[in-house]
């Protein structure tokens, strides 16, 4: 009898487990049935039957809920080849955490990034989202735009997917030949439920009321619903499953920020005022110093909705064939109304005072002049994801299984009709009379006061002193499609005495396509600093567009926050009202804000297409035997991938360099943009070997080697070359994408030990090392581009030089240009001519060059006190190595972002229908990346963060339960800083979220 047939024959109605010792024969029967049922039935297994103790009558303990999910997760970990961790649902629709990212962070070595106080993307063993592959039922999933809609990415955003309907998550930390490539940190497989997973009809419905403590706009309590129906028909030959969910969340972000720290604003050549009062305590060995670019505060009100749906059809025409068709859809929309206010600092001739600490950081600054502004942003972020798949499993013979799987999946991200970055900025006059005092401590927000000269005071700043400055409409759109098909044949050895148990031969092919578009309206003519006669726009926007808000109402948790910031109040304004007010305003002949059109209606400023086609054959061997009486297993495989890359990007082709006056040069372009066409390819052999030895019935030792890859950054693979628009001699720069970038390669070694010392309890330790190559670096070379010739080295310039020399006149740029004008009457600019020397450009291109080593250990433990109902989980991850950042150097440098230590502690109680769970996770400070608002190679660090979550439920009866969830109960806040902790960059106040609801299960 085949395993699946045996499983169906042994099915038991749900999950009973006997605590006393089993009679050997009963134990054998129970293990046979439970093991087979687990293989066939997935989330509902293992399900051991009750058995009789030799000393007494049958005693039963029903195991469900959280403890059963721990049993299932432990079984997956223990039986897996290689280093694997798993999380399984307590029951269908009951995942341990309300957010998938926040659930997977409980796995050792896994940490997460948060967006608006909610988990979004994962980092594993120090490797960020771009280095981890996320699959859905074994299928590669496309990525969406990064939070904020900034750039194209390969990484999957867990915010898009509801935890309802998820059966489990498996994290593969070692590579395998039969798993698609793409993750050097890990491969994370999300499993959804199937109708054949269940022995009978299942139906669930749950409803929640959500309360986010941060909410200031919209309903403070928002709904969430989810439901599932699954059943089998026609003698269990046909199965249907439908599930769906909807959630709504209103929330507010309260933020403070500095948009970067400027290098060396004080000292020789800095151009500071002669009246500068400087206290310099700098002991930085190179004398470098850093000063804040600006000082900002703000609030962002979010209205987020998420809809998920899935339909699964399964068909078993004969016992040996199972066909599955499924469709999954997610829709995520976040409407953000954001308001910020702040001031820029001026390091020019205005008098001021400053204090620099020992690290070279300006901690006190008094500055006059520069801007005071208020901004309003109307942003909409929409993510749509869909996946349609088909799977066929066929037990062709007792020795041969065949599986075919195919899917078409897409992810679309944009701003819809509204755009995802539309803004307007207004200024408070008289900005130039403003005196700003900036103070900063090591762990505080900036404490700033703004002082005005008479007749203006803090108390009489009114909307009649506000003038429009400028605005833009922007949209970033990203479309990602994955088409994938695979077939696998598994031969199972019928010779029980042979050490070779099976051979798996497979072939995958994947087509990965992306399109990234950017739309920009340019600056609207909205008065643009015309706040003085004759173009005085003060009061052009009516007072009704503005709302005065108390500064004391935000950032109350932070030292330096609340009423200590800036002025006691600030202005928010309605962007559309301000736009309407400026139509036709201003003075005659002065440009005003044009008709407001969204950026999507215009031609894209960037349009980048990338296609990757990857065929991949693989071969895998599974061995199992005894070594000196100890069970030994080995899984060995090899995978080969050949990737063909095509990049097509819209670019304006430069046609000439034009000398327009003695000191200025311009680049001219062809009238119509064209698409580039660049191709490349590479091949990779990916071997793996996983071995395990059961040295004791409860102790397993493991060793693994694998080579894994993660494909390169999409933003660096575009097929365009761009040149500067002001190509002066000595400043003729160009940048080029590189579709030929190789993938990141990692050679991985893992050593692990697992001790299953008691019932559903274990201790595990894992040491790992990764040698990673092909990190990106920028390389600059010199050469010609597009056949463009150089007018200041061409025939006309050489003629002028010869004439000046013959006349004994000085030869300079000014005299050469004047002589060329004299030689060519009526001509006031000069382009390179055919036959002139070619312009030599400094061309900067991303290339593969850097490498690093990561090593570390992970410890995890789980203990269940069966009699009391209490249990405990804990893990600790300590990765190290990499390429650390040198805070003293201001040169370009390579450093690996995301590397951090983390730990998790989870305690729970489950008995008498009650279930409670308390979980705390903490991640140490880490390098998040480089500041994207400046070009000074300044680092951004995220401070250490810890979060406490809790949940409780009570089963009123076997069908109906009520529950409560609390997320971030301590209202932990997030903070970022620069080279040193006192170089404040960003803070976002944390708030708790609460859920209360009920669940009905049939």
3D architecture notes:
The chain is mainly beta and 1002 residues long. The protein has 3 domains: 1-63, no CATH class; 221-269 and 298-784 and 842-1001, Maltoporin, Chain A (Beta Barrel); 791-837, no CATH class. Helix content is 8%, strand content 51%. α1 (3-9) crosses α2 and α6 packs across α7. The chain is globular and about 100 Å long. Residues 1-63, 528-534 and 586-601 have low confidence and may be disordered.
Quickly describe the structure.
The protein is mainly beta and 1002 residues long. The chain has seven helices and 51 strands. Mean pLDDT is 83; it is low at 1-63, 528-534 and 586-601.
Helical content (DSSP H or I, runs of 4+): under 10%
Q: Which superfamily, in CATH terms, is the homologous superfamily of the largest domain? A: TonB-dependent receptor, beta-barrel domain
- The domain tally reads 3
Provide mean pLDDT, rounded: 83
What sort of overall outline do the alpha carbons produce when their principal axes are compared? globular
In terms of quaternary structure, what is this? single chain
Spans of at least 5 consecutive residues whose pLDDT stays below 50 are: 1-63, 528-534, 586-601
Beta-strand content bin: over 45%
> Any idea what the radius of gyration is?
32 Å
- How many individual β-strands? 51
CATH topology grouping of the largest domain: Maltoporin, Chain A
| SS-based class | mainly beta
